[in-house]
Amino acid sequence: MRILVLGRTGYLGRHVVAHLRGLPDATVTAAGRAAGGGPRLDLACDPPERLAKTLAEAAPDAVVNCAGATGGDAVTLAEVNARGPAALCAALRQAAPRARLVHLGSAAEYGPGEQGTRATESAATRPLGPYGATKLAGTAAVSASGLDAVVLRVGNPVGPGAPPTGLPGRVAALLRDAGPGPDAVLRLGDLSAYRDFVDVRDVARAVVLAVTAPGPLPPVLNIGGGRAVQVRDLVHRLARRAGFGGRIEEDTGGSARSAAVSWQCSDITAAAGALGWRPAYCLEESLAALWGDGGGDTPGPEGGRAP
């Protein structure tokens, strides 16, 4: 089985590549915008004809799109998260129409949830910011492509190697800089919101199952922890894990995003039925791996570092 992974250098992409390379009889090719180690592909800029040529040369049985932008201005987000998947689908229809496409979406596509509820795949999508809106546009392009495609709508990833661009990785970096002393101070924004955290290794395992599942899959599947955790609880758990003895100061004024999106939680029942997937790691295990990892190298299939 030939598998092409796009977005090889990102947080999710590195874990996905490592897990897929554990499959027997699979040839995994990792592509990205930067040169080195595989084909160079830039979904934000490359015309579909160029993408189609590269895809035809790779002749994949499956394509996994981990490429995406979580930050930047609205134009950058639109180019990567909306234009990118649309161009990829156009190229696949031309060069590899029978290949399965597994695209990583985001729970941010749902927007604010109702307190105490879990969003199913049929829930209304009401993203409030450019990130969620552009990810939703990418999902729409994939779902309407006519390809053998599935969107894995991923919650808030956490675990080994989490980057400082996301909250868990940023808090871990701040804790390392602050040190364990009693005079240390950790200053953070509003921590009152609830989010659905999922271990990055569980996300990678879901991708493996989606790539290898027989027959067609539902157009969208939620991949999350299946429960809402208050961000404040995550921060304090990570601080205890780090042996932090100082103070955590929270901006009690709140933020516009936390106030508008105070609750996000995904119903993961459909993924269990379609893929036989459930989270294997609890939040405490994810935080232990994050802190013990040190934000380091490419992970192996079980979350350790690959040689």
From TrEMBL:
It comes from the Bacteria. Residues 3-224 form the NAD-dependent epimerase/dehydratase domain. Belongs to the NAD(P)-dependent epimerase/dehydratase family. InterPro entries: Epimerase_deHydtase (IPR001509), NAD(P)-bd_dom_sf (IPR036291). Pfam families: Epimerase (PF01370). SUPFAM superfamilies: NAD(P)-binding Rossmann-fold domains (SSF51735). This is NarL family transcriptional regulator.
